[in-house]
Every structure is written in structure tokens, then in C-alpha cells.
Amino acid sequence: MSDSPIVRPKHSRSTSITTSKKNTSHQRKPSLNVQQQQQQQQQQTPRPDIRRHSSSRPSLNTVSSAAWSSPTFVNSIGLKLQSFLNPAGPLLPHSKHGNAFGGTAKPSILSKFIQSRLIRFVALFYVIFSVFLTLNHTWKYFLATSSDNNKTIGLKEANNALDDQFSNDWVPQRTYDQDDTYSLMNQMTHGLKMSKLFSKSYYDAAKNIKPFWLKASNVPEQDEVSIVTTATADTWEDLKRLTVYWEGPISAIIHIEQDDESLVQKIKLEYENTPELYRNVDLHLAHIPGDKLSVLFPRNAERNLARLLAQTNYIMDLPHGVIPATDLRRTLESNKERIDSLLLAGDVLALPTFSFKSRQVTRDDIPYDKSQLIFKLSEDKMVLDDKHWKENEGPTDLERWMDAESLYAVEKYEFHYEPVIIESKTIQPWCSERFLDSRAACIFSSYLQGNEIWVLPDDFMVQMPQEDGDVEVTDFDNVVENRIYAKFYWEQCVHHARQLDALGLWKSPRSQHIRSQCSRVIQNWGKGLIDIHEDSKTYQIHIISRKSVILLVE
């Protein structure tokens, strides 16, 4: 036995120090009692049976009992959608793949595109939308109700009725909606449209207007001149005589009493049997109570209607009983460019009217050129007939016309002047329909706008003799018309003065006519307006401003 002491192991917690080449780690060793307790617990815990099939692949019995249960099925669908929209990526970041898995390839653009969440969401939405759309169409195809079939049959019958109603000559018109086969304007009654066009006329009279009651067979050129005129049962023969002297287009209003159907049939028969009528005359029927001129549908309204329905760009307003004695169509054709430029600028062409002193006139007595007319004037058989003036007097200026070889402008205009004029259908103002029969009102509005009146030097009109009973306007009506026209004169002066001032044309040559005609009128109107002061919130006067008054009296 040696003297060296005996070393016994100690059962206490100690720390072993493991040294490696790279680093040093301090690990705490568990005590012996702790290890023994862990071994005993592992022996007591029963081990589960080890099967060949892993938990990720359950048996058939498991699938049939759990997979088809409602909550589990919905959850599985949700998991599938979530996994589709959020595809699982690698657990390590891409920068660590090289060390952990021995290196990897750089991801392509296509893989990034496929793995995009937005792209997968759009694809899923498209698939769901396509499925529902297919189901919807399939449902409608197989389960359509009988009412749809009835509607289809009804539409076919309606189309067949329309085919029977419209012949092959029917011309389709522009509509407001390309999907509709009708225009909304067609839903308005004829009376409503006519009463709006002629607001100062009686409704029952306006609704009985029949445009193009009898239509001419010839189609005129747009640059021709159409005569617009009116006729009654008493002046029907005058219209027939007019077609002998004028072979161009005519737009005529025939005024017939509302209850006189026999006269309607008589005129229709004569129209169809007279070549000069059915070739060139568009006849528009005015079925109006009474056979005489009436305020229910005045003559000026008839003029506007005939002008509206004329088929050419230029018109000539002709009163009944007046005929073109010369070859006016030839004159217009030979000077077409010059005349077109004047009419398109707003000017009008005037033709002087001459009448016979004797009532016994034959066709041979009518002069056909200027030289014959001058000879008859020298014999005192014919006179210049400017309405409202004495014989051979008036703004036409007979002496100047007899010596004229070219167009000349009217210099002595007066607001009662009403010669036969040729004008543009679209540019000129419409005739005021407050008058029974006043062509002067039509010309006056145009003159105040600054338009010139040019007198043709070689052509003229002839007023044929009329019987004493042919006068349509009574003396009482003449008094009323003159008083209305005096107020109309004032009104038109103010209106056109304001219009020129608003257009900035007051200091231009276009204001010369209104300055010469209306200076005193506007000054008188202005005196009554300048000192009026009213509360602008309750009442305003919009007739003319102080500025316009000052300009007009300069």
C-alpha cells in the first residue's frame, strides 16, 4: 500500500470542457439520476404501431369518412385556394441555397411570373367567371320559358306587318337611335308640329294642313328658282295661267274651305289632267274654315309654308294674278354666277310690276320685252304699279329703270315697298305672320338687316286685270293692318338695331339702312327708357340699353 491518497469519483454536477480545433464549448452534463429517470419513462410509454402507410397517405376508410364531411371539405377547398394563391417557397433565403444544397440555378422570369400572386388571382377569377357564364347560358338554353317563344312570334308578325305597310319605294330616314326603326319626331301629332311652326295660327286650321298634297313629277335642280304663291277656289285659274308663262318649279298653297270636298276632288282631277300642273307644281292643301282670307291662317303664314316646302335654294314670292312676261329663267341662267353671289350675300332681286289701265286684255296685249313695254307706257296703256303709290311713282324709280342697262340698288326705299322679289330660301328672315297679307313686312325685315334691293334692268312682271269682287281684305281689316304695321315698324327698328350692335356691325356699312330708317324711332323709344329705374331683382327692362340709344342717335 502506497502512501498516495485514493481518488473517488464524485457524483455531483460538473462541467466538462470540450476542446475542438475551431472553438471551445462549455456543455453541462446531466446527472446520473436524471438519465435513469428518462430511461424509465421511455420504457413505460407504449410505442405506436408502425405501418407501411405514412400519415400523409391515409387509408380508404379514412377518406370516405372525413374528406366528404361538409366542414372538412370547405376547409380543404380553402387550403387549396390558399396554397394556390400563396405558393410555398424554400425555407432558406435564396442567398443561402448554395451552402445548404450544393448550389442552385438562378430563377427564370417565367417562374417568377407563374409564382406571382396577382397572376394566379386573375387566372382563378377567369376560371370562376367562365364556369358561371357557361352555367347561365346552359340554363337559358335548356330551360327557356314559352313566353320567349311567344315574344319571338309577335316580333315576326310585327315585322311582316311593316313589310306589308312599306313598299319597295320607301326611303329610310335618319333616326335618333341607330337601334330604333322610327324617329321620335314621328310620335308627335301633325297638328302639334304645324301649330308650333305657325304659332299665331288657329290650331284646328294648322292641323288640317297637308304638305305635298299633290307632288310634281319633275325634280328641280337645287340652284333653280321656285315660285311660291297662294291660291283659292276663286284664283285657281290664275295659278293655271301662271304655269303657261313659267315652266320652272312652283310651290303653291291651295286654300279650300274645310267642308267643300267636291271642290277638292275637282281640283285634284284638273291637276292630274293638266301637264303644266303635274309636271312642275307642288300643291299643298290648306283645309281651313271659310273660303276667304282669315286670321285663322293668314296669307303670310301660307307664304312661309310655301317657302318652307320649296325644293330649290332660291324662291320668288309672287302674288296671285301676276305673271312673268319676259324670259326670266333665261336671264337668271345667263347671269348665274353674279346672281348667286348676291343672293347668298343676303341681297334680293326686285322685278318692277306693271299693270294695264283697261280691263279688256288679251294674251297678245302682254309685252314680252322691255322695248314693247316702253312703247305701251308711252301710249299710256300700261303704268308702273308700285303698291301704295300713285301710277308710275314709287321706289322703283321708273325713269331710272327705263334707262338702266345693269342692276341698280333702290335708293328711295320706304317701308311700304313690296315689289316681286327673288331671294334665298334660307338666309332671308321669314314673313311676320301677324298680318293677313303684307309682303312689305317680309321685305322690311331684310332691308333693316343691311341687305340691298337690286332691280333687274330688263325683266318685269305684269299684273293681270282683276274683278272688283277679287279684293280679299276689307276696309276694316286694312285699318287694323295699318295700325299693327305701324307698331311693327317700331319694333323691327329696335330689334335689328340691337342685333347689329350685338354683332359688332353698328359702325359697319350694314347699319346704313337702319340709320336712315329708324333714327327718330329709336330716339323716341329711348326717351321713355333712359330715366326708368326699377329694382333689378324684381323687374328688368330688356328692350334696349342706354348704349344702343346713344349709338343710334349719333
TrEMBL record:
Membrane-spanning segments: 118-139
Disordered, as annotated region: 1-63
UniProt topology in membrane: Single-pass type II membrane protein
Keywords: Glycoprotein, Membrane, Signal-anchor, Transmembrane, Transmembrane helix
Pfam families in UniProt: Glyco_transf_49
InterPro entries given in the database record: Xyl/GlcA_transferase
Molecular function via GO: glucuronosyltransferase activity; xylosyltransferase activity
GO terms for cellular component: membrane
Subcellular location: Membrane
Coiled-coil segments: none
Presence of the UniProt keyword Membrane in the record: yes
Gene Ontology biological-process annotations: protein O-linked glycosylation via mannose
Keyword Magnesium appears in the UniProt entry: no
Compositional bias annotation for Low complexity: 35-44
Entries under PANTHER family matching the protein: GLYCOSYLTRANSFERASE-LIKE PROTEIN LARGE (PTHR12270:SF25), GLYCOSYLTRANSFERASE-RELATED (PTHR12270)
Protein name: Glycosyltransferase family 49 protein
